Amino acid sequence: MSYESSAGINVFNQYGARQTGGAVGVETSDDSITRVRFDLTGESLNSGFLPPVSIPKGALFLSYRLRVDEAFVVTGTAPTVQVGAAGSVATNGVVLTETELENVGTKLLATAGAGTWALDSSTGTTAAALVDIALEGDAAVASTSGKATLILEYVNVTKV
């Protein structure tokens, strides 16, 4: 990492990649199938920062997979992590349960999604939306624990 302080007021600019443990982006797109990958850590879940990624209008979700490499320490009353459309995460998104986050391994999520993110949605997403993450159920995640990858897979074909 490179830092520069050219203003002389003890303010630094950082150049290069920042390793926060949380990253997101389109992993691959084959034909009409797109996979978006989220690298999650306890630190990234607590910070609330998610690099901007958008799910397009008309996307129909096919599957949600979670790979946990290091178990998270999750506490709270019915704690969950919700991933979905910014502004409507609870109604258009998926839920990661405490059990799923605390157990190492690869799994299909127990959730079938909600709203336009539901696997059985008849319309798919009705508008393009940025993805957001929220801790729910007075959830608390230890910032020093947990490493996982969430993969959202959807089909999207748009005629111009």
Report on the architecture of this protein.
The structure is a single chain. The protein has 160 residues and is mostly beta strands. The protein has one domain. 7% of the residues lie in helices and 45% in strands. The protein has helices spanning 42-47, 98-102, and strands at residues 2-4, 13-15, 23-30, 33-41, 54-55, 60-70, 74-75, 80-85, 93-97, 105-108, 129-136, 140-141, 147-155. Strand 1 (2-4) and strand 2 (13-15) form a beta hairpin. The relative contact order is 0.28.
Can you write the helix and strand succession as a string? Answer: EEEEHEEEEEHEEEE
Strand order of the largest sheet: 3-4-13-6-10
Radius of gyration: 17 Å
- Report the structural category: mainly beta
Poorly predicted runs of 5 or more residues:
none
Distance between the ends: 42 Å
How many H/I helices? 2
Number of extended strands:
13
Helix fraction by DSSP (H/I, runs of at least 4): under 10%
Largest sheet: 5 strands, antiparallel
Overall geometric form: globular
Beta-strand proportion:
over 45%
Number of domains: 1
What is the average per-residue confidence, as pLDDT, rounded to a whole number?
A: 86
